[in-house]
Amino acid sequence: MADWVAELQRTWPGKLELDCPMARHCTLRVGGLARVLAAPASIEELALLLQLLGSLEVPWHVIGRGSNLLVPDTGYAGVIILLSRNFAAISPRAAKGGGVASVRVAAGCGLMKLVNWCLSQSLSGLEFAAGIPGSVGGAVAMNAGAWGEEIAGRIEAVTLMDRKGRLATKAGRELAFSYRRLDLAGQVVVEAEFSLVPGCREEMEARCRDLLARRKEKQPQGLPSAGSFFKNPAAGPAAGKLIEEAGLKGRQIGGALISPKHANFLVNAGGATASDFLQLMGLVQAAVEKRSGIRLEPEVRILTVPVA
User: Fold this and answer.
1) Beta bridge partner(s), residue 80
2) Nearest-angstrom CA–CA distance, 303 and 200
3) Are residues 25 and 37 in contact, defined by beta-carbon separation less than 8 angstroms?
4) Cα separation of 60 and 208, whole Å?
5) CA spacing 20 to 30 A to 270: which of 43, 158, 160, 241?
6) For this structure, is 45 an active site residue?
7) What is the pTM assigned to this prediction?
């Protein structure tokens, strides 16, 4: 056992799991062992954990539901920090002028859980997120979006924790959002505050049903995936269109398959490994670049080395 693992077990009071199979925590259902998986039960435990990992010089990475994550078969030599049910609170705040309501949400809350809560409260603004997998923290960090809207458009403020366990809250206008990215500068999303508006529940539910039906019609169902695997280029056709035009729909390496239904979905057709997905990703990038001159960038976060 590495010395830092023993020290972490001795000094951190939270729940630890050693040599954790990351396939259990990624929606692609692939990935090697994380040396340690830590599941803090509170803000205080998270702060202490980051302080300890800093002093021990141990790399770490934060996950929620693992919907945009690919861990290599060789695993991750540091600590995976899981923010889940202990970081899932939804706290409405007093309505502000102009009919705008503010809702504070912890990072581990499922994004679909938040959408359903907003429907129950007739608070509109996040219907576009219906069907997007993952947690609120991941959605903020990735600036998740669909149907021409993005999470950044509804962010009022985000509470971040730095590597020393210190909290700071930044207004949405102070944050460096870009396409499928928020520049976190090594900080962790702990909580997000959303600006919403009162809406008609029946109309909101109808829109969510419509968007979910459109997702079901266009996207593969029933097989593990990470959602859209590649980012859409800044200009030109969408990634799925470029992959389809390269004749790659249905191409398969091992258990990793380019969905015949939507070419920007790489799915686990059964028994896939992380290596299968990485090889298929490389094939797609090379073929698309050769045909169109565009180098597709993965939307999925790939932990190729244990960086903090």
Assistant:
1) 37, 61
2) 42
3) yes
4) 36
5) 241
6) no
7) 0.90
